[in-house]
Automatic annotation (TrEMBL):
Pfam family, one: Hexapep
Keyword terms of this UniProt record: Transferase
Name of the protein: Sugar acetyltransferase
Family classification: Belongs to the transferase hexapeptide repeat family.
Keyword Cytoplasm: no
């Protein structure tokens, strides 16, 4: 019986591997042609998450998108979002499984950006200006997001509208990030703040802030 189970298990794993390989989205696959641009070597793993608005998505060479990663432009499939790309992911990136990237105006991710799983990046947020109207019915507000090349986003990080991360930044797992952070920042916390920085003169150091002055 154990021999039969081992043989059946091996067959199932081989079949699943073949399904994943066949279901991968790449520049030459039928689904790949729906994107504005997929560079050579791009791989979007099977099974994918929710993907729509592909004609406004650009992905650079040799970028790997993990399984169940959702990428969307606009609120729903179908509307014309204009002539320009809205979601741009650079070359040689790795986006962790289960992550969500939601773009309505502009999300720009540089080259060599790596993320852990379940990262959430969006350029749109709900508003609550009218205290008498349900928040979900109030028209949301957009603000562009930019993530600099060479950055790392830890597991479960949330990048909110209006965020600009410089080059070679580190975002700690679970951080909720909004605002502008210069190159070589280490960002952590809820809400996130810059906890380390780098200069050629000081190397890696803890930045002096008003909160740290006695």
């Amino acid at each position: 019986m154990s021999l039969v189970r081992r043989a059946l298990g091996a067959l199932i794993h081989r079949a699943y591997g073949a399904i994943r390989a066949a279901g991968e989205i790449s520049p030459g696959s039928p689904a790949g042609y729906r994107f504005r641009s997929l560079g050579p070597g791009v791989s979007i793993a099977f099974p994918p998450g929710a993907i729509f608005g592909e004609q406004w998505i650009e992905i650079g060479d040799h970028t790997l998108i993990g399984e169940r990663v959702s990428m969307s432009c606009g609120m729903v499939p179908g509307p014309d979002l204009g002539p320009d790309s809205i979601l741009r992911i650079g070359a040689s990136c790795s986006i962790g499984r289960g992550s969500h990237i939601v773009a309505h105006q502009s999300v720009d991710i540089g080259d060599d950006v790596f993320t852990g799983p379940y990262v959430y990046i969006t350029d749109q947020n709900h508003v609550y200006d009218d205290p008498d109207m349900p928040i979900g019915r109030q028209w949301p507000r957009n603000s562009p997001v930019s993530i600099g090349s060479g950055s790392w986003l830890g597991t479960g990080a949330i990048i909110l509208p209006g965020t600009t991360l410089g080059r070679q930044c580190v975002v700690a797992g679970g951080a909720v990030v909004r605002g502008e952070f210069p190159d070589h920042s280490v960002v952590a916390g809820v809400p996130a703040r810059r906890v380390r920085g780098y200069t050629p003169e000081q190397g890696w150091h803890t930045p002096v802030t008003l909160d740290s002055i006695p």
